[in-house]
Amino acid sequence: MAQTDLTELLNRAQGGDASAREAAFAQIYADLKRIAAAELRRNPGATLNTTALVHEAYAKLAAHHAGALASRAHFFSLAARAMRQILVDQARSRLADKRGGREAHTGLDGAHEIADRRAEELLLVDEALDRLAEHDERAAKVVEWHFFGGFTFGEIAAELDLSERTVRSDWALARAVLARELGLGDAVLAGSGAGLRNA
C-alpha cells in the first residue's frame, strides 16, 4: 500500500473509523515493534515488553493527538515521541520507587543498578533534549527521530527535505551539546535504530 494510503488510513482512524484503525495498525505494526525494541534495548529498566510498548504508544496517540497527519513520517515522529514519553514516565516512576524504598535490591542484582543508572541517564537526556529544542528545534528533532524513532539519516533527510550531510551535521551538533551538558551524551546516544524502511 502506498504511503499516501497509509496517511489516509491513519486520518480516517483518527476520525473514529474502526476498520481503518485496524488496517493502519496492521500495516505499521512491524515498524512500531522495531522502534519499541530499539527503545527497550537502550532502557533495560523498562517494565513493558515490546508488544506492550507498541500498544501503549498507539493508544496514547489515538487518545491525545489532534489534527490531521501530514505523512507517514509525521505519524512515526509522533510515535517516537509517545514512546519517549512512556519510557521517561517509567524512569521517573522507577527512581521514585527507589527513593521511597519500595524496590528491594539484592547484593547479587547488578542489573538493577544498571537499570537505575539508565533511568537516570534517560531523564537527563530527555531534559537536555527539551532545552536543545528551545534553541535548535531541528537538531532536537533529528535526535528524537534517529535515537528515539529509529530513522536513518537518509530517511530524516528525505522527510525534512534536507541533505544527508546537513542531518549528520545536526546530529553531531546535538551530540556535542548533550555531551557538554551531561558528560555522557556520546555514550548515551551511541546506539540508534536500524531505520523504518530498507531504502
Automatic annotation (TrEMBL):
GO terms for biological process: DNA-templated transcription initiation. One of its GO terms (molecular function) is sigma factor activity. The keyword Transcription applies. It comes from the Bacteria. It holds the Pfam family Sigma70_ECF. Keywords: Sigma factor, Transcription, Transcription regulation. Residues 4-182 form the RNA polymerase sigma-70 ECF-like HTH domain. PANTHER family: RNA POLYMERASE ECF-TYPE SIGMA FACTO, SIMILAR TO RNA POLYMERASE SIGMA-E FACTOR. This is RNA polymerase sigma factor (TIGR02999 family).
